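Chapter summary example.
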Amino acid sequence: MKRNDYISWDEYFMGVALLSAQRSKDPNTQVGACIVNPEKKIVGVGYNGFPSGLDDDALPWAREGAFLETKYPYVCHAELNAILNSTRDLKGCSIYVALFPCNECAKAIIQSGIKEIVYLSDKYDGTDSVVASKMMLTQAGVRLRKLELKHPPITISFDVEA
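The structure predicted for these 162 residues follows.
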């Protein structure tokens, strides 16, 4: 008899996004994204960080201060990285992301042809960036779905001896 406590596809793909976020070197916010095609195959993953080839120690990670002395002009968000890292055409795909996308990521999501966003948190709801994001995504017909987790927390251990 098969086990009944396995995770759903949504939980699996969100888990991949959350695990990808652990690659981020950002000391404050770690976000990951996982793009899935209609056949339930992963076609792109990404996390927030500086563009490839840039030295993570040569640029600032600060959240406050003069614009050029913060991370904001340099960091690529997880959604954009997942799109840029994708292995195929993204038309009709879904993107799983822990944090609801900003307006800049919304533009990239719309342009790439992604048709669904599955997210965990909308903690910036009501900010100008998210208001603009939701306006564009709604007009473009992108489905927005907050994932309600039904499974207890899962801990991943890299200790194979355990």
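To summarize the output: Residues 43 and 86 are 5 Å apart (CA to CA).
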